[in-house]
Amino acid sequence: MYREEAYGSGSGSGGGATIPYDYSSNNTNKNDRNTNHNKPPMFNGDPEMFSWWKTKMYSHIMGMDDELWDILEDGVVDLKLDEEGVALDRKAHTAEQKKLYKKHHTIRGILVVALPHKEYLKMSDKSTTKAMFTSLCSLYEGNKKFKRLRLQCLFISMNCSE
Question: N or C: more exposed end of the chain, with fewer CB within 10 A?
Answer without folding.
Answer: C
